[in-house]
Amino acid sequence: MASLNYANPKEQSQHPKQPRVILENRFAFPPNRETLGATSYFIVGNSVNILIDCPAWNQTNQDFLQNQGGVKFLFLTHRGAIAKVREIQQTFNCEVIIQEQEAYLLPNLSVTPFQHELTFSDEQIQALWTPGYSPGSSCLYDPALGGILFTGRHLLPNAQGYPTPLRTSKTFHWKRQLASVERLLDLFKDKPLEYICPGANTGLLRGQGVIRGWGD
What we know:
The protein is of the alpha/beta class and 216 residues long. Helices cover 17% and strands 26% of the residues.
């Protein structure tokens, strides 16, 4: 009698989910346990591809990134988003961008630090320093599709799905975080902003994937 090979139910449940489309050529990865359930994003640009924070480094995500043409830039929104940076850079030979106060956390890697702002790629993607959650907490502004702001843990959805700063045990400096929010509000009086993509708590978006503007 031929032997039967039964799959382990635990192994079946561990098959990683694919990244999903949230906007045109913008993808969200499933939450990464290594970064405390944070959500990473991926921009497939006309000239370059940009990975925002570290997704789980499994075969599903590696194959997805390869099939999309690889990664040119890895942008880290804060120190808590650092996971398999070395492996990602070795695989894709990508440029790693992080605010200068947290660049020391990536020794022996090729890193591009920035101070207040940094504009890169033909798409005019802009890194913005927004300290508070961590010393080097930063957001990434993508001017496409009416303006998209990737906020890391600087702004997260509340129970109503509105973007807000949340004070937690990991908050570095609450008053600085509030001041950074005010600077963003001032900045986007003159810049278009159609969508906000938070770096955690995305379950509160109830399947929407993004926040529309400031939630109003």
